[in-house]
Design a protein that fits this description.
Blueprint: H1 3-20, H2 25-30, H3 44-62, H4 79-84, H5 112-117, H6 131-136, H7 139-148, H8 175-184, H9 199-210, H10 223-236, H11 241-254, E1 258-260, E2 270-275, E3 301-306, E4 318-320, H12 323-334, H13 348-351, H14 354-357, H15 363-372, H16 374-383, H17 390-393, E5 399-404, H18 407-410, H19 413-421, H20 438-463, E6 487-491, E7 496-500, E8 509-513, H21 515-525, H22 535-557, H23 562-572, H24 580-585, H25 603-615, H26 640-643, E9 649-655, E10 661-669, E11 691-696, E12 705-709, H27 712-723, H28 728-738, H29 747-762
Parallel strand pairs: 1-4, 5-8, 9-12
Antiparallel strand pairs: 2-3, 5-6, 6-7, 9-10, 10-11
Length: 777
């Protein structure tokens, strides 16, 4: 044991001994706890935090402690999150009978004292401030010290004492509880299940903590950004009913976005929020859970609030606002020919139904607005709070494409009348807010979906009776320039990713979204979903999404020959007991023939080729799996026995002959006989049909395996060994040779390399990856 580690062990014993004397000793030694004033603008110690402390916290701590799913709700990504500290309450709890009170940073409490009243406990010393007490009384310091004082295995697999499951028990200790934790779980030091900080990193954080943990916010936005903010806030807060209704619609679709202004280069992002104060005054946040919940004030103002926390890949959804976007919104919403006599209210049964609230805005305007930023809207389904965990995501397949119905074909008067007549049938579960009774609610929504699909199918039968208009002209082509026209969604078991383009091999299924379907998915999974809701709310949301997935798939099937539609659908839902959602959707395949001329016995592949052809001008090629060079390209067609051994998301870093590095993502797609079962996913797995895709760049926010290939010979050897894998020992041998395990002595160096490459290649899309799903193999 080194002298440094020995010293740390002795120090930890001394500090822990303080607790052993009795719970009250901390108060006796250092006085009662009281939140401290730590955020200091324009002060030397605060500046030191930004330049020396914050980079260490981000690269070593925020990669696990950054958002809703951070262990113990500890968000180290901002001064407010650090000061707030820990909570023993779970955000993600699929079993709670009653919704819980939200704990959103900045929204649900404004001061550290208020968070203490909400049950959050400190990770920094809040007693008497001195060099000794600031270390002895800090959970953060003692967690780092515990790791430093216990040697970590090098290159091995960690023992069963380490629990990396998403639903693992969380200790979330107060300082009074830390001694017992250290004795019972000496392996629980931070970073958990990863190597300790370097000596210099540890000393930097130690000095910061010793000096009182002073912090400073990032710089204010540049003058350029502030001018843009003022312009956009003026645009969004005009006084007429028409302007106010349009601004409400824009907000309810953009509120999760990280907005930036291309005119500026200072890297600032902004969030569109509701405030009780108008532009020019400090923002006073409306604290409602959903973007359409009653603000309980006479008028809301839509404001752009600077994002001051670290940007994380798993929640980052960038949106560029410029003069062209401003003109586009004006054309879509303000120049359009419609009137708004009265503004809709915020009663839950009304506000949760966008077809009622925004009935005065033309469907074409709404749909074009969503299509313009389709990837952003779909990312809300993926990166919003709903999509965490396997139960939330087992409603979708592992790899599928998304295309859209052209707004010119989806906005005629017949479609408008359909939506107006059936607006009651399009009501969504959020109408019941966050507490719901699953069975009675489910029956009600099932009945309404059946009525809507019956009417939609009847209209389609009439519109396409001649078989001449049911063809590729229905597909939106991005107006010849918008890459949002084609998207790919990858599910990674308990996380997911969406990217522009048709990425990877032709998938098992594809969705074709029309306006009503696109809008309902957004209001179901994003605007209307409450992560703090009860089991009924979460269960109904998942079950309702069955309807919408089937509807999107059937829009695609309707483009195929009549003779193949049911056959392909039966293949997608093999071995399934006929669920209520499938029963309701069974007759929504229209009987009109397709107008597409097929030439082979494999029309689905022909249709994929035609989709590629008509969308070729706008297809994003950044993740084209076909351009991956040899020998790695062979990973796209490996034996299934090898693919079955892979985790869902692997990052491969290769070193080039000139010393530069290139990144690839190797994605494992789990195949299923069907995805109609809520609780028996394992029983529906079709292991023999699993596939893998390797693409250039990074896809996935939660890497599970990291590989480093030093040279061309290593790449060739890696692919050769990979193709021969048939068992877990084979995989472990490959990991030992080329993997960067959790226990790798230089893990953090490789982590820094990955983030450096990502920052260089992803640009404005860059955010820190999350390590909570790194495998222990």
């Amino acid at each position: 044991m080194s002298k440094r580690v020995l010293f740390c062990a002795v120090m930890l014993t001394v500090l822990s001994g303080c607790v052993a004397l009795g719970v009250s000793k901390y108060d006796d030694m250092f006085g009662p706890e009281q939140p401290q004033a730590r955020i200091e603008q324009h002060h030397q110690s605060g500046t030191r935090y930004l330049h020396t402390v914050k980079p260490i916290l981000e690269s070593r701590c925020v990669v696990c402690h950054g958002c809703y799913d951070a262990p113990c709700q500890l968000k180290l990504s901002s001064p407010e999150g650090i000061d707030r500290g820990l909570s023993k309450e779970l955000v993600y709890d699929g079993t709670r009978l009653l919704a819980r009170t939200p704990t959103r940073l900045l929204f649900d409490a404004q001061t550290t004292t208020q968070w203490r009243e909400r049950g959050f406990t400190a990770v920094l010393n809040e007693r008497q401030q001195s060099d000794y007490s600031n270390l002895a009384g800090s959970v953060l310091y003692n967690s780092l010290l515990l790791k430093m004082s216990h040697p970590f295995p090098k290159q091995g697999i960690l023992g069963k004492e380490f629990d990396f499951s998403l639903d693992r028990e969380q200790s979330c200790p107060t300082m009074d509880e830390f001694s017992a934790l250290a004795k019972q779980q000496p392996h629980a030091g931070m970073p958990y299940g990863l190597p300790a900080l370097s000596h210099d990193e540890f000393k930097t954080l130690e000095q910061w903590l010793k000096n009182g943990s002073k912090m400073q916010q990032i710089a204010e936005p540049s003058d350029v950004d502030q001018k843009e903010v003022a312009k956009w806030e003026q645009f969004l807060n005009q006084d007429t009913n028409k302007h106010r209704l349009a601004a409400r619609y824009i907000f309810e679709h953009w509120y999760l976005a990280h907005i930036y202004f291309p005119k500026s280069d200072d890297g600032s992002f902004f969030q569109l929020v509701r405030s009780s104060t108008p532009p020019g005054q400090p923002i006073a946040l409306v604290k409602a859970v959903r973007p359409f919940d009653d603000p309980k004030i006479d008028r809301v103002y839509y404001r752009l609030m600077q994002v001051r926390s670290t940007i994380l890949s798993k929640t980052h959804m960038s949106l560029a606002l410029d003069d062209a976007k401003l003109a586009r919104l004006h054309q879509q919403f303000y120049a359009a020919d419609y009137q708004v006599q009265t503004l809709p209210g915020y009663e839950p049964e009304l506000a949760a139904n966008p077809f009622k609230v925004f009935k005065d805005i033309p469907v074409k305007s709404r749909y074009q607005f969503m299509l313009d930023e389709a990837e952003l809207i779909v990312k809300g389904f993926i990166k919003g709070p709903v999509c965490r965990g396997q139960i939330a995501l087992n409603v979708i397949n592992d790899h599928f494409w998304v295309a859209f119905v052209d707004p010119e074909k989806n906005s005629n008067e017949a479609v408008n009348q359909l939506l107006l007549k059936h607006d009651e049938d399009l009501v969504l579960p959020a109408a019941e807010q966050s507490n719901a009774l699953p069975l009675s609610s489910w029956a009600k929504y099932a009945s309404k979906q059946q009525d809507y699909l019956r009417a939609k199918t009847a209209l389609a039968e009439t519109m396409f009776a001649d078989g001449q208009r049911l063809n590729m002209d229905l597909i939106w082509r991005g107006e010849g320039e918008n890459p949002n026209a084609a998207l790919t969604i990858f599910r990674h078991f308990d996380s997911a990713t969406v990217v522009k383009g048709f990425i990877g091999q032709p998938p098992k299924t594809t969705w074709v979204l029309d306006y009503a379907l696109f809008e309902r998915i957004h209001y179901l999974l994003v605007a209307g979903f409450d992560v703090y809701g009860n089991i009924g709310h979460q269960l109904i949301t998942r079950l309702y999404m069955d309807f919408l997935r089937l509807e999107g798939e059937q829009n695609f099937l309707n483009l195929l020959p009549l003779s193949h539609r049911q056959e392909i659908k039966r293949h997608w839902y093999r071995k399934s007991h006929l669920s209520l959602s499938e029963f309701i959707n069974r007759k929504s395949l229209i009987g009109a023939p397709t107008g597409i001329k097929y030439k082979t016995d494999d029309p689905k592949q022909e249709l994929y080729q035609q989709l590629h052809t008509v969308l070729e001008p706008v297809l994003n090629k950044d993740y084209d799996y076909r351009v991956v060079g040899k020998p790695l390209q062979a990973l796209n067609s490996m034996p299934v026995e090898a693919i079955n051994l892979l985790p869902q998301v692997s990052f491969i870093i290769t070193k080039q002959s000139d010393g530069s590095h290139q990144a690839f993502s190797l994605l494992h797609h789990n195949a299923h006989f069907n995805i109609s079962s809520l609780l028996n996913e394992e029983g529906q797995r079709a292991y023999a049909e699993d596939t893998a895709t390797i693409v250039p760049g990074f896809i996935g926010d939660y890497p599970e395996a990291i590989w480093y290939l030093e040279n061309k010979a290593a790449k060739e050897d890696f692919v050769s060994l990979f193709s021969q894998m048939t068992s877990e020992p084979d995989y472990l041998a490959l990991r030992a040779q080329y993997g960067i395990r959790r226990t790798h002595p230089e893990f953090w160096r490789y982590s820094d390399l990955i983030h450096k490459i990502a920052e260089q290649t992803r640009g404005v899309e860059y955010g820190l990856f999350d390590y909570n799903r790194l495998e222990n193999r």
